[in-house]
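In this section we walk through a basic example: taking a raw amino acid sequence and producing a predicted 3D structure, encoded as C-alpha cells. The instruction is simple. Fold the sequence below.
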Amino acid sequence: MLQKDKDAGERPQQLGLERGASYREVRKYLCPEPNAVQIYQHLKDFSLSSPTVVTLGTFDGVHLGHQALVARAMAKARELGGTAVLLTLEPHPRRLIDPGFELARLTLPAERAELLAAFGLDALVEQAFTADFAQTSALDFVRRDLVGRLGMKHLIVGYDHRFGRNREGDFAQLQEFAGVFDFGLDRVDAVMGDRDALSSTKIRAAVAEGRVRDAARTLGRPHFLRGEVVAGRGIGRNLGYRTANVGGIHPDKAMPAHGVYAVRLDFCDAEGPSNLAGVANYGLRPSFGATAEAVLEVHLLDFEVQGYGRSVEVRFIDFIRAEQTFETPEALKAQIARDVVKAREALALAL
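The resulting C-alpha cell sequence is shown next.
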C-alpha cells in the first residue's frame, strides 16, 4: 500500500474543503498535490478492516458519469460507516489483448488518483491486469476478490458494466451473487450528454477533434495536460509574443487537434502563480520550418515566463482556429494579435 502523505487524510479540510467538493473548489488541490486517497497496487495488498462499498471501472477522465458512481459509493459508505473503494485495472485491458494498441488517456493514473481524491474517494486499488488475472471467472472475481479480499458489503456499478473472463458477468449475475454472498447492489443509470450517454471514448474523440468545450461539459472541467517549460526557437519572442514551450508531456496523454486554443496555465510549484490566461498553438508550426513532431506553445496574456524546467498544467478552454501557414512574419504577427483578442473573449465567457 502506498500512502502518499501521512497527513493526507486531513488535507481537504486544511484547504477549507468538504470531501466531495466541486472541481472548481478543489482546483488548487490538483497541480499536483499529495492526495488523500489510499492507493493499493494489488488486491492482495488491501488491508482496510472497515466494510467497503466498491465501484468498478477504468474511470479514464473521471467524467460526470464516473463522478456519479463515486458520489453514490461515498454516500452508501457513509451510511454503512465504511470505506468507498474503486477497483480499476492497469494497464488498460485492451493492451493485453493487443500489445500494439495505443490508448490516448484523458487522465494518467496519477491524475486520476488526484481527481478521485478531490471528489472524496477513500481508497483506490490499481490491480495489475495480467494474462492470469484475465482468466478470472465472474464467480471467482466476486467471491475471491470483491467479497474475500476487499470485504465488500455493497457494490455500485454503471448501467452497462460487465466483468470476469471474456466479460461474461453482467448485472443479472450480480443480482444472483448478491443473494449468495450477502452484499447490497445498486446500478447507476447513464449520465446523458446532449444526445446519448457519456463515455470516455466520446470525450477522447472530442479532444482529438479540437472540441474542447464539448469535452469540458462532459468532464465537468477543462481537459488538461502537464509538462515543463523548455527552450524553444525564439520565434514568438522575435514577433513580440513570448511563449512558454511545454515539453515532457507523457506520450499516452490525449492531445487536442492541431490548432490555436484559449487556455489557462498553472505553475505547479510553491512560487505559482496559477490560472493564468493564455493563447496556445499546438501543432507542427508550418510557417517557418515545420517540426517533425507537434509542439505546444503558450503565450501568456498578462504574465511573462522566466526560466526553464518549471512544471506547468495547461487547461484547454476553447478552440479558436486551425493551424495555418503564413507567408511572412508580419502576417503571422497580425494573426496572433487577432487570436489574443478571441482568446480573451473566450476566457471571459468561461469564467
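Looking at the output, two observations stand out. Residues 172 and 300 are 53 Å apart (CA to CA). The chain has a mean pLDDT of 86. In the next section we compare this with other chains.
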